[in-house]
Description:
mainly alpha
Amino acid sequence: MLGEPHDLRHEFPNLDDRISVLCDSDEEFAHLMEDHDSLDAEVRKLEELGVPVADETIEELKKERLVMKDRLYDRLRAD
């Protein structure tokens, strides 16, 4: 669905407490999460505004967002 949020708290509501702990205690995790959320906002903006952009460009941004989400999820599931 266009414009749907894909931030971690929406994607993994059951891990909200763990997300908060890692954001407070792990600077690298917090930074990666900020980068992911910024990229997610950029993708949603492009989708919602209907800005002319090549399909390949939006797909590359989505792939990058997915790679970041996978890295964050791996960190969330560790321990």
